[in-house]
Automatic annotation (TrEMBL):
This is Terminase-like family protein. Residues 24-179 form the Phage terminase large subunit N-terminal domain. Residues 192-205 have a biased composition (Basic and acidic residues). InterPro entries: P-loop_NTPase, Terminase_L_N. Residues 190-211 are annotated as: Disordered. The lineage of its organism: Bacteria, Pseudomonadati, Pseudomonadota, Alphaproteobacteria, Acetobacterales. SUPFAM superfamilies: P-loop containing nucleoside triphosphate hydrolases.
Amino acid sequence: MKHAFSLTPDQRTANQLLGGPATHILLRGGARSGKTFVLVRAVVIRALKAAGTRHGIFRHRLNALRATVLADTFPTVMRRCFPTVPWALSRTDWTVEMPNGSVILFGGLDDDDRTEKILGLEFATVYLNEASQITYGARNMLLTRLAQKSPLALKEYIDANPPTTAHWLYRVFEDGVDPTSAAPLDRALRHHAPEPRWQPREPVTRIHGAA
């Protein structure tokens, strides 16, 4: 039996955050909290909304991204949320092209050749998956490529388990300072006030969708 897809209340709250004015958005929570599902869905929505745009989903290691997001989350999002949208994964360059010409690229930051390729592209969205494993320098490198001109506002999405106080995620999103210089960061760009984070209560298995 097929059920109409619906978000949980916490995921709807997250969507409001993602659709707000903030450029840099962190969703944090434990395993199976649903944060990756929400962010992958948001990336697909943006890709479908603006033809010819480019969006990147990144993790420290490509193999880990392939084993999680590519093998499970992305196909699940497409099946449940966009069942009529055709898509196919190119295993040559690890991209998915949407019917409107928009492209979602899946990349690892652990290889110089892959990183060099990323540096030659511009994105409307960059999404750092499991960002607790990504260095601040690698994150800032990606931000230099968050520069594609399109009808979309530029967005950086981040998901992570709750970070330690020494991690750059904590310094940026909790302390509101640059981890290197300790200079204050613009709060309005980091999150949508008043709540910069999302800690969901509902697991992804509670999402209703087509089997």
